[in-house]
């Protein structure tokens, strides 16, 4: 489901339903070898400046093999920012965190449940990272795993309803050896606190050419369709900002749309009013993914006028993926050890109290 037009992931080994990190890493490494002649490694972009005559000047840092650095400048016509959004861990500001004597870790550095062998851990967060971390650590930890969450997972709200997992409320403050919760209870004897709290969007190398990210690092301001930079429409575009399923397919479509620009500021304002800062780049519900996918097709309609146009790039939304996603839900439930499907937001199934269904009419463009 993560494949692109000519970049399709292999089936998982051992008849598993999910690829391992090692399998994905190996595949991507091999698939990108054919681009090695145009790829510059060990090089970081430290600064970007717009040039009066057009184009941009990059300040680059090359890390030499002998451990020294070489600084130099180079001019380009355009910059495509494709650094993703899972690089700078988000750790919430909680009073007293600096006084805490126990261990602190972010899920970005976690690799195996064995890391917490014979330890008491508190996991903060609700996302897939928190789920994987809790389920894989259960056989190794000492005692119960405590999970502090503000709200349940939107699609698997009962995933932590199991033995040896205790869901607690949010944290009010830390002391040296205790964690005080907002309901007045206190956790003691915790060895490690693990933050599964997501990541910041951050682009320090663009500080001279565009505004900083929004409050809390949740949103990149001035992006139309999560791609086009309204502040630098002739020089800068983004690929890979949007956070959704079908990511590789979406990245591929975004890559050949970066030259388009129109009604960008209005789109951003409407999106911000509807979704807010935190959810701005997240396509949370299935209908949003369908609409976004086909909106990109509409924007790229002029691409079909080219003799070299690849029609497979502009195919309609692959509904078979949604059908496969729905069909795979029982498998995901088994992976999470859930015997009962209680539904969730964006899921076909029982409604969760307080959630309200939304009927959306989809006009799908097919090419």
Write a structural description:
With 367 residues, the protein is α/β, with parallel strands linked by helices. Helices cover 20% and strands 19% of the residues. The chain has 7 helices and 17 strands. Strands 6-13-7-8-9 form a 5-stranded parallel beta sheet, with helices on one face. The relative contact order is 0.12. Its cofactor is FAD. Keywords: FAD, Flavoprotein, NADP, Oxidoreductase.
SSE blueprint and pairings:
Layout: H1 21-31, E1 43-50, E2 56-63, E3 69-76, E4 79-81, E5 88-89, E6 103-106, E7 121-124, H2 128-137, E8 145-148, E9 165-168, E10 171-174, E11 178-181, E12 186-188, E13 192-195, E14 199-200, E15 223-224, E16 228-229, E17 236-238, H3 247-255, H4 264-275, H5 286-299, H6 319-327, H7 329-335
Parallel strand pairs: 4-17, 6-13, 7-8, 7-13, 8-9
Antiparallel strand pairs: 1-2, 2-3, 5-14, 10-11, 11-12, 15-16
């Amino acid at each position: 489901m993560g494949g692109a037009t000519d970049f399709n992931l292999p089936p998982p080994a051992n008849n598993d339903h999910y690829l391992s990190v090692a399998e994905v890493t190996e595949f991507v490494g091999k698939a990108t070898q054919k681009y090695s002649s145009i790829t510059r490694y060990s090089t970081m972009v430290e600064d970007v400046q717009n040039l009066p005559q057009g184009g941009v000047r990059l300040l680059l840092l090359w890390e030499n093999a002998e451990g020294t650095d070489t600084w130099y400048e180079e001019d380009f016509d355009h910059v495509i920012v494709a650094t993703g959004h899972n690089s700078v861990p988000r750790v919430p500001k909680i009073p007293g965190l600096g006084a805490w004597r126990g261990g602190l870790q972010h899920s970005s550095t976690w690799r195996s449940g064995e890391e917490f062998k014979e330890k008491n851990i508190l996991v903060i967060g609700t996302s897939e990272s928190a789920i994987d971390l809790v389920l894989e650590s259960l056989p190794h930890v000492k005692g119960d795993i405590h999970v502090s969450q503000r709200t349940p997972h939107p699609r698997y709200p009962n995933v932590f309803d199991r033995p040896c997992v205790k869901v607690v409320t949010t944290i009010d403050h830390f002391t040296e050896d205790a964690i005080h919760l907002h309901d007045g209870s206190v956790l003691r004897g915790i060895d490690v606190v693990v933050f599964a709290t997501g990541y910041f969007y951050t682009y320090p190398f663009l500080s001279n050419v565009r505004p900083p990210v929004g409050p809390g690092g949740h949103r990149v301001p001035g992006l139309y369709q999560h791609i086009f930079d309204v502040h630098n429409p002739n020089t800068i575009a983004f690929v890979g900002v949007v956070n959704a399923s079908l990511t590789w397919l979406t990245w591929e479509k975004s890559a050949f749309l970066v030259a388009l620009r129109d009604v960008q500021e209005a789109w951003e304002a409407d999106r911000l009013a509807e979704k807010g800062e935190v959810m701005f780049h997240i396509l949370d519900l299935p209908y949003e993914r369908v609409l976004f996918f086909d909106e990109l097709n509409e924007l790229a309609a002029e691409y079909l006028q080219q003799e070299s146009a690849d029609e497979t790039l502009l195919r309609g939304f692959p509904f078979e993926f949604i059908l496969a996603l729905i069909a795979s839900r029982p498998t995901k439930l088994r992976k999470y050890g859930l015997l009962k499907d209680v539904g969730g937001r964006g899921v076909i199934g029982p409604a969760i109290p307080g959630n309200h269904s939304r009927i959306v009419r989809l006009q799908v463009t097919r090419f």
